[in-house]
Structures are given as C-alpha cells and as structure tokens.
C-alpha cells in the first residue's frame, strides 16, 4: 500500500530511499495529484512573496510590474507563472530523466521517470518560494533526491544514478534556457503588439 500524502512528504524529506521504494508501483495519477497539490500551495506562497516584494521573480522583461505597489496583479502574475513553469519543468525533467536512465542501462518506464521527477521536487515545492536561499537549497536537495529515485526506480548503481542526474540536469537547463529565451521573445513580441511595453 502506498503511503499517505503526509507520509510521502515526510518520507521524501527524511527517508527518501524507503519512500521511493514504497511508491514504485503507485499509479501515476497519485503522483500527479501529489505534485499538483504541492505546486498549488507553492504557487500561492510565491505569489504572496512577489506581491510583498520579497522575491527575485520579476516580470519587468515582459512589461509586468511586481511588488507591493502592484497588489493583486503582482500576485496573479506570480501565481500563474509559477504554476505554468512548474508543469512545464515537470514534463521536461521526466523526459530527460527517461532518456538519461535508459541510455545508461536503467530498467524503467516513463511512469518511473515521472514519479522520480514529481517526488524529487518535494523540497522545492515546500521551500522553493523562500527567496534565494530556499530556492537554491531546495533545488540542490531535489537533485540529490533525483539520484536516489533513479537508483531505486531504475535499478542502477549509485554512479550511474549520479550520471543520469547530472546529464538530466544539463539537458534540462539547456532546454529550459532555450525555451525560456524563446518564450521571452514571443511574450515580448506579443506585449509590443499589444502596446504593453513602453
């Protein structure tokens, strides 16, 4: 039987190897619900931080003002961006994990990559809304959980799991950077067309 929602959170924070083992046959829908609930909470907290002016998230490149003087719109922008980026990065991370794990001899399916991508993000989803330190530490923690998850769900040794995590991280950052630049260019172009930029 798969652990409860709260047991998963606690497990991935303090007993990740055992918790990955416990969820290895869990339905993908359960992992998706877990991710969506934590992403919703994190997005709300990120929105609050942006609207109070305590965040490095900035929409100025798109002509979007953020901070206390922008009130509700600042919150809505941060909420929407965090949700969209969280869903986008989940899919990209799962794809690159699957490619990396299979290329190094892992015995897993895309569902395993999805589970690793979801559950490895637990620290980020809980603490990533905290400016700079929370974001940085939770991302490093997520990479460590990725190594553990790949090792457990793909049945590879620790060295290969580290290699998968590093390759996946490099591929993910490259794809995110390229798509981020593309998205910024498209959004800026749309904002220009709509007369939203100065």
Keywords:
mainly alpha; 8 helices; globular
Task: Please give a structural write-up.
It is built from 8 helices and no strands. The chain has 198 residues and is an all-alpha fold. It has one domain. The termini are far apart. The model has no long low-confidence stretch (mean pLDDT 84).
State which percent range the strand residues make up. Answer: under 5%
Tally of separate domains: 1
Radius of gyration over alpha carbons? 18 Å
Runs in which pLDDT lies below 50 for 5 or more consecutive residues are none
Query: What do the pLDDT scores average to?
Result: 84
SS content category: mainly alpha
User: How would you name the oligomeric state of the polypeptide chains in this document?
Assistant: single chain
In angstroms, what separates the terminal alpha carbons? 57 Å
Please write out the topology.
Blueprint: H1 5-14, H2 16-23, H3 28-52, H4 71-103, H5 110-120, H6 122-127, H7 133-154, H8 158-194
Helix pairs in contact: 1-2, 2-7, 3-4, 3-5, 4-5, 4-8, 5-7, 7-8
Briefly say what this structure is.
The chain has helices at about 5-15, 15-25, 30-50, 70-105, 110-120, 120-125, 135-155, 160-195. By secondary structure, the chain is mainly alpha-helical. The chain is globular and about 50 Å long.
């Amino acid at each position: 039987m798969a652990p409860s929602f709260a047991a998963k959170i606690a497990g991935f924070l303090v007993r990740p190897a055992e918790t990955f083992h416990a969820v290895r046959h869990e339905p993908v829908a359960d992992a998706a619900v877990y991710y969506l609930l934590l992403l919703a909470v994190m997005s709300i907290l990120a929105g609050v931080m942006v609207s109070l002016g305590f965040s490095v998230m900035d929409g100025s490149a798109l002509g979007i003002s953020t901070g206390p003087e922008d009130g509700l719109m600042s919150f809505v922008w941060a909420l929407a961006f965090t949700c969209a980026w969280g869903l986008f990065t989940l899919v990209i991370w799962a794809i690159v994990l699957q490619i990396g794990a299979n290329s190094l001899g892992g015995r897993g399916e895309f569902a395993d990559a999805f589970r690793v991508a979801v559950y490895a993000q637990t620290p980020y989803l809980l603490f990533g809304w905290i400016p700079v330190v929370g974001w940085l530490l939770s991302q490093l923690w997520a990479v460590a959980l990725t190594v553990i998850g790949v090792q457990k769900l793909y049945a590879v040794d620790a060295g290969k799991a580290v290699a998968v995590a590093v390759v996946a991280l490099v591929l993910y950052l490259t794809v995110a950077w390229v798509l981020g630049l593309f998205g910024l260019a498209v959004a800026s172009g749309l904002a220009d067309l709509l007369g939203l930029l100065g």
